[in-house]
Amino acid sequence: MTTRHLLVAAAVLVAVTAGCGSTPSGDQPQPSGVLSVPQARSVEGTVISVRGIVLIGRDGTVRLCEGLSGSYPPQCGGASLVLRGLDEAELPGRETAGGVTWGGPVTVHGIHRDGVLTIDR
């Protein structure tokens, strides 16, 4: 086989396998397992499990954070999602300083839409 034949064969193989494992237009793949916060940000409209650290700001906004910053009291470090439906009493390792509460890590199950993860009970 010549180099040209090998290149044509490779191109055909890529074209044939490109559609394998894809989902129908407009559908998102169904995630499996527990996602990180950055992974969860790209999945919308389906129940997912997400692991992160909870931070409740001075203004009462609850966020699920990828991590915490080194400041004290801490702030979200990395990616985050607004979290709705959290029962603060269920937050393990809860600490409060300067009007900020944080705890976790936790795994929550919910539906992500437009940057908001709503816990599915």
Mean pLDDT: 80
Shape: globular
Kindly identify the CATH topology: OB fold (Dihydrolipoamide Acetyltransferase, E2P)
Number of strands: 7
The number of helical runs is: 2
Helices and strands, in order, run as HEHEEEEEE
How much beta, percentage-wise?
A: 35-45%
Measured between the Cα atoms of the first and last residue, the distance is: 61 Å
Please give the order of strands in the largest beta sheet: 2-3-4-7-6
User: What number of domains?
Assistant: 1
At CATH level 2, the architecture is Beta Barrel
> What is the share of helical residues?
10-25%
CATH level 1 name: Mainly Beta
> What is the radius of gyration computed over CA atoms, rounded to a whole number of angstroms?
21 Å
* Poorly predicted regions: 1-29
Q: In this structure, how is the largest beta sheet organized?
A: 5 strands, mixed, barrel
Output the structural class.
alpha+beta
Question: Mind explaining what this structure looks like?
Answer:
This protein is of the alpha+beta class and 121 residues long. The protein has a single domain, classed as OB fold (Dihydrolipoamide Acetyltransferase, E2P). Helices cover 16% and strands 41% of the residues. It contains 2 helices and 7 strands, in the order H-E-H-E-E-E-E-E-E. It has helices at 3-17, 37-40, and strands at residues 34-36, 47-56, 62-68, 76-84, 95-97, 100-113, 116-119. The protein has a 5-stranded mixed beta barrel. Strand 2 and strand 3 (62-68) form a beta hairpin. The longest helix is centred in the N-terminal third of the chain and has 15 residues, at 3-17. The radius of gyration is 21 Å and the shape is globular. The model is unreliable at 1-29 (pLDDT under 50).
